[in-house]
């Protein structure tokens, strides 16, 4: 791989350093604006190159020493060379340019925050070594890791032991991933295997569970999740606490990966929500936002594609004795004008997937509600959708949350109100 000296003269939309080489744009992972770095080219495209910073010949005042020894080898983090506060400031400044509005931010705990993760597992027969971790930047190889500072502390401390345990399995070369679900003090690992576990393997995993205090589940080619060797015991739902509400979370249920950032997001919505109105929560999931605002809104209608998720949201409402929430199954990506029964005094909350809610926004501008709260994990699709909504609404508040510390991602909450003509 070619190593070159580059002068960094900007920041990309993924917050990599930006430079130029042979009339091609170069994005440099681990480089900052104004720096001069020696970088290794790892990917070549027709118009763009991707590189990783090595020796820093002239450093930015923002640069700090990355705390994790695996930084830049592991792709799990890309911004550890900047303080968490500076990361948010850079992200907020970038978003301000996109939406032309001042953006605030809230910091959260940047370490041991990630309560959901999928770690790749690979056994290298030539080296007789089993690797577990995120992928490398340089390709599809699994990064060599002995711990992870963004995973929960109990999982982080257990990784070396887990690696040793998986290396003992007779089918170690067929283990493809270990999925982490760590909510409150409930820590579970799901081992994905492509070949059937042998009796000795099951005993090894049961022993690991006893010694580590982690709940161990396995998942074979039938994709069913159960305890090792016990096909009748499925994944036990975990209990998440958001404010005064409890939520039953299954392994396939969406949940925000950062508990403290999610709490801050919910509090922000509660503070800005127009009270005592009918509120429509589009893409409500299991009720993360719906139930949290149930004591502020007059009535809440939650909308979700999956009938299973609707039933789970109803169950969570029942557990929390919330009586003013109604959940409706609908494909919001195919919604028609007469599906949205909105009045001028209503509030709309949008919390779509990364693809955004383009078509739904086109429908919303045909209505005039008193407030739209748009929550997004993808700044590009958010910017696109805000442009659509700007035909009838304007931004009253924009705020980002440190949901994905040390990565290029962040969670945004934008409050919109009708334009006054």
Features:
421 residues; alpha/beta; OB fold (Dihydrolipoamide Acetyltransferase, E2P); Rossmann fold; 3 domains; eight-stranded mixed sheet; 7 helices; 22% helix; globular
Care to describe what's here?
- This protein has 421 residues and is an alpha/beta fold.
- The protein folds into 3 domains: 1-62, Nucleic acid-binding proteins (OB fold (Dihydrolipoamide Acetyltransferase, E2P), Beta Barrel); 98-109 and 258-418, Rossmann fold, CATH 3.40.50; 116-238, Beta Barrel (OB fold (Dihydrolipoamide Acetyltransferase, E2P)).
- The protein is built from 7 helices and 22 strands.
- The strands form 4 sheets. The chain has an 8-stranded mixed sheet with strand order 6-21-22-20-19-16-17-18, sandwiched between helices.
- Helix 6 (358-364) packs parallel to helix 7.
Strand order of the largest sheet: 6-21-22-20-19-16-17-18
Strand content: 25-35%
Q: The biggest beta sheet, please? A: 8 strands, mixed
Q: Report the C-alpha radius of gyration, rounded.
A: 23 Å
CATH fold annotation of the largest domain: Rossmann fold
Q: Give the SSE string.
A: EEEEEHEEEHEEHEEEEEHEEHEEHEHEE
What's the number of domains? Answer: 3
């Amino acid at each position: 791989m070619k190593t070159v000296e580059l002068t960094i003269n900007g920041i990309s939309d993924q917050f990599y350093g930006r430079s130029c080489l042979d009339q091609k744009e170069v994005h440099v992972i681990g480089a900052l604006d104004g720096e001069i770095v020696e970088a290794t080219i790892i990917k070549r495209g027709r118009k763009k190159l991707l590189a990783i910073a090595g020796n820093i010949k002239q450093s930015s005042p923002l640069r700090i020493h990355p705390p994790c020894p695996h930084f830049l080898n592991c792709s799990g983090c890309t911004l550890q060379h900047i303080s968490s506060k500076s990361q948010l400031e850079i992200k907020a400044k970038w978003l301000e340019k996109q939406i032309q509005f001042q953006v605030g931010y809230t910091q959260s705990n940047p370490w041991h925050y990630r309560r959901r993760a999928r770690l790749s597992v690979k056994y290298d027969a030539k080296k007789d070594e089993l690797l577990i971790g995120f992928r490398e930047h340089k390709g599809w190889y699994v990064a060599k890791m002995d711990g992870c500072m963004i995973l929960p502390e109990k999982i982080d401390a257990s990784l070396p032991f887990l690696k040793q345990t998986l290396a003992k399995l007779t089918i170690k070369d067929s283990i493809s991933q270990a999925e982490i679900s760590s909510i409150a003090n409930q820590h579970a690992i799901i081992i994905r295997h492509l070949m059937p576990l042998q009796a000795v393997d099951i005993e090894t995993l049961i022993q690991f569970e006893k010694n580590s205090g982690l709940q161990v589940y396995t998942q074979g080619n039938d994709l069913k999740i159960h305890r090792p060797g016990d096909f009748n015991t499925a994944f036990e739902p975990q209990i998440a606490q958001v404010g005064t509400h409890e939520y039953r979370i299954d392994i396939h249920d969406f949940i925000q990966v950062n508990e403290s950032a999610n709490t801050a997001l919910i509090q922000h919505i509660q503070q800005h929500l127009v009270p005592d109105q009918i509120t429509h929560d589009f893409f409500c999931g299991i009720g993360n936002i719906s139930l949290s605002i149930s004591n502020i809104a007059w009535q809440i209608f939650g909308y979700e594609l999956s009938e299973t998720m609707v039933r789970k949201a109803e169950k969570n409402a029942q557990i929390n004795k919330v009586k003013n929430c109604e959940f409706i199954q609908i494909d919001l990506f195919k919604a028609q004008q007469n599906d949205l029964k909105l009045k001028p005094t209503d509030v709309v909350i949008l919390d779509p997937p990364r693809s955004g809610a383009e078509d739904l926004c086109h429908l919303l501008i045909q209505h005039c509600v008193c407030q739209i709260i748009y929550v997004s994990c993808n700044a590009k699709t958010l910017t696109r959708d805000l442009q659509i909504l700007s035909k009838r609404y304007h931004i009253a508040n924009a705020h980002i949350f440190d949901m994905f510390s040390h990565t290029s991602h962040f969670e945004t909450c934008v409050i919109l109100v009708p334009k006054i003509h």
